TrEMBL record:
Location of region: Disordered: 13-34
Keyword Metal-binding: yes
Gene Ontology MF terms in the entry: zinc ion binding
Descriptive protein name: FLYWCH-type domain-containing protein
First and last residue of the signal peptide: none
Keywords from the UniProt entry: Metal-binding, Zinc, Zinc-finger
Acidic residues bias: start-end ranges: 13-22
One Pfam family recorded for the sequence: FLYWCH
Boundaries of every FLYWCH-type domain copy: 52-109
Entry-linked InterPro entries: Znf_FLYWCH (IPR007588)
Length: 214
């Protein structure tokens, strides 16, 4: 039987076309947008002392209250009002003109929601108590709470009887001192209209007659 060795080479030629090869579409780059938290901005509000003996306080938007620690020609230093014995909060705020800057120490306690509103209510109660010496403190407290407290809860707001007690204390601080002898001046602004009927001095004695027309 005859055998044959057949060798054949087959070359497959690539067909050449006049059309350009389609360029691959580049994949879009995916950027990692890492959103950083915006700096925490704190705003401040001066709560002016609206009575003769009341002192101005400073409130911030976080719910902290400060009073004056030190006044200098170039700056005012405010200290946190939370100062229990043995564990004073050392947070301060430095005021230069209308600019406020937080100190290096952080608060060692959480803020109190509604602290600024509560301080404003207290200032209004004291102001009204001085303006209207003869109106019951409880009535003043009720009017201020009705006008300024609003409908939202305020955890920092003192109880009504504490507000009334503060009103009576501020009144007491503005009243004349008790006389030491009979030779004293009557403060007419401390006596209701028409209540003083007579002030009689005779034979070393003094008789002050008070009464109403009813």
């Amino acid at each position: 039987m005859d055998t044959f060795d057949i060798q054949a080479s087959f070359e497959l030629e690539n067909e050449q076309t006049d059309e350009p090869m389609e360029e691959s579409i580049p994949q879009p780059r995916i950027h990692d947008h890492t959103t950083e938290d915006a700096p925490h901005e704190v705003t401040y509000q001066l709560l002016e002392g609206r009575t003769k003996r009341a002192k101005t306080k400073l409130a911030d938007s976080d719910g902290y209250i400060y009073n004056v620690q030190l006044r200098r020609a170039s700056a005012t230093y405010w200290q946190c009002t939370v100062r229990p014995k043995g564990n004073h909060c050392r947070a301060i705020v430095i005021q230069r003109g209308n600019e406020f800057q937080q100190g290096k120490q952080n608060h060692n306690h959480p803020p109190t929601a509604g602290a600024a509103k509560a301080a404003g209510v207290m200032a209004s109660v004291k102001e009204r108590a001085v303006e209207d010496q003869f109106k019951p403190a409880s009535a003043i407290v009720n009017e201020v709470l009705l006008n300024e407290s609003g409908n939202e809860p305020c955890p920092a707001l003192p109880k009504p009887h504490h507000l009334a007690r503060a009103a009576n204390r501020i009144r007491q601080s503005t009243r004349p001192k008790d006389p030491l002898d009979l030779d004293f001046d009557l403060h007419q602004d401390q006596i209701p209209d028409g209540f003083l009927k007579a002030d009689i001095k005779k034979h070393g004695n003094r008789h002050i007659i008070l009464g109403t027309d009813q």
